[in-house]
Amino acid sequence: MRLTEILKNIDYQLLQGNLDHKIEALIYDSRKAVKNTVFIAMDGVYADGHQFINDAVEQGCQVIVLEKDICMQKGITYIKVSDTRSALAHMSCSFFSHPSHELTVIGVTGTVGKTTSALMIYSILKEAGKKVGVIGTNGVYINDFYEETHNTTPESYELNRIMRLMRFHNCDYCVMEVSSQAFKMHRVDGIDFDYGIFTNLSPDHIGPNEHASFEEYRDCKKQLFQLCKIGLFNLDDSHASEMMNQAACQIYTYSTLKEADLYAQHINLYQEPGHMGIRFETGGLLKDFYTLDMPGRFNVYNALVSLFICSQIGIDHADIKRALAHVHIAGRGEVIHVSDDYTVIIDYAHNGAAFESILNTVEEYKPNRVICVYGMPGKRSKVRRIESGEAIARHHAYAVLTADDPRDEKVSDIALEIIHAMGHLSNDHYTVVENRKEAIYYALDHALKNDVILILGKGHETHMVLENEVKVHYSDKESVESYRKDHKNA
Ligand SMILES: CC(=O)N[C@H]1[C@@H](OP(=O)(O)OP(=O)(O)OC[C@H]2O[C@@H](n3ccc(=O)[nH]c3=O)[C@H](O)[C@@H]2O)O[C@H](CO)[C@@H](O)[C@@H]1O[C@H](C)C(=O)N[C@@H](C)C(=O)N[C@H](CCC(=O)O)C(=O)O
Ligand SMILES: Nc1ncnc2c1ncn2[C@@H]1O[C@H](COP(=O)(O)OP(=O)(O)OP(=O)(O)O)[C@@H](O)[C@H]1O
Fold first, then answer.
1. Among 54, 151, 159, which residue has the most ligand 1 atoms within 8 Å of its CB, making it the best to mutate?
2. Mind telling me which InterPro entries this protein's record contains (predicted)?
3. Whose CA is nearest to atom 29 of ligand 2?
4. What's the pTM value of the predicted model, to 2 decimals?
5. Pair 60, 191 in one domain
6. Which of 52, 108, 371, 416 has the most crowded Cβ, counting Cβ within 10 A?
7. Residues 313, 168: one domain?
8. Does residue 183 have its Cβ closer than 6 Å to ligand 1?
9. Burial class (CB in 10 A: 0-12, 13-18, 19+), 66
10. Exposed, middle or buried, 409 (CB in 10 Å: 0-12/13-18/19+)?
11. Which of 325, 356, 385 is the last residue of a domain?
């Protein structure tokens, strides 16, 4: 594509050189720069891309987009913009010919529930025969194609590339998680959102490399409702009215507690071997009865979101109902049948809010005991260690503390911090088994009739991060399945 075409939608100043270039890719990591690419220098958390401009030039790149003054080399084109992250986003939209304009884009934001809601919508649309893609923490799925993601919301260039790939696969719909960092880092600038969904909000991702304050975190998420045409808000969240404030979209609401545009009532839990689910009735825009084969009152929120979007899109109601009845999301309230005596659930709960919801929800099924197998990541926010320990104590649950991406920290040290946060809980309520597979075996070996074993924090993930960020293969699901196999053969 010609450089002038790529720059069409941004304000820039040509510092040196000319715009007569044919461009084959946009690059924001100098290590990937080659001939016929533009290098966009971005100031990051750990490094400043401007320091690598000469490396990019050395590797053959002849066009540089920057926001700071640097010493220019002869024969190279330098283009100055006020914000290179935003420029990359708009240039990427142009480079890939605005794929979001050709898709119905559904964006989901909020502290928890993004992955679950996005994948529920994706599953229902797919089952209804629609061509749909999804982008989020669990990766990119386009029909049968899969690609891993490094971020919940990929960098703008990747995002537009993926959306173009979706169009290549004839997708009409794109469901995507939109993280607060995505707004902060301009990853979704220029994306044409049709629907925006707000799940809930609680303090998270606040720290030196993420958000400066809760207000900044919240205001980043609010931006979705400036960009989308229709916004759907969880009326039960205490931040709902603040999130709706200044929204430029048409507003719809959902609730499980009060009347809203779409609301759930008469929520009933059910449990049978290998299944923990929920039945509910809806009022407002849709009046019907539904079954969801996933545990958790909170999943009714995710189901309401999916019902609203799929019915707005025009999916046949019987198809939605059928698909919802058997939707399962990897690592999100995933029930694995090991024994008729007790229930095993793998769940991605990894912060205070999610621990509270999963523990609350599981208690409603009136289990004998709740045993949580989990750990907390090394070199990451210590708040989550405290919040999780407090939640275990509040709910009088049992904890088998173990590894969860310990990085350069000792699993036993992290466990001690969690135990400290458990406060008054007596020491027969917890134990430490450092190897995660052994911890799962330990919990399952000690399970009693009607116990619920919650394996928390890693969800769908298939790796463990050790010292020096070295990743080794590890999966909770494989550990549980291996236990089941061993005990079948025993
Ligand atoms: C801390 C953080 O947010 N980092 C993100 C950021 O990296 P960065 O730009 O700060 O990277 P950097 O290492 O400082 O480098 C700055 C620039 O120099 C370039 N560089 C660097 C070295 C070199 O030799 N040559 C070179 O050109 C880099 O490519 C980069 O463009 O921009 C990258 C591209 O978009 C992201 O992949 C990366 O996410 C990291 C992996 C991350 O963990 N991010 C988290 C905080 C995040 O975004 N999380 C949200 C979910 C949480 C939420 O709900 O908000 C998410 O969407 O994933
Ligand atoms: N609507 C909800 N309300 C409260 N808790 C929820 C909700 N949906 C899911 N959860 C809980 O939060 C955990 C994380 O859910 P999910 O992965 O869907 O959220 P997320 O927003 O994608 O999180 P993250 O951005 O951290 O990846 C689940 O495993 C479950 O325990």
1. 151
2. Mur-like_cat_sf, Mur_ligase_C, Mur_ligase_C_dom_sf, Mur_ligase_cen, Mur_ligase_N, MurE/MurF_N, UDP-N-AcMur-Glu-dNH2Pim_ligase
3. 348
4. 0.90
5. no
6. 108
7. yes
8. no
9. buried
10. middle
11. 325
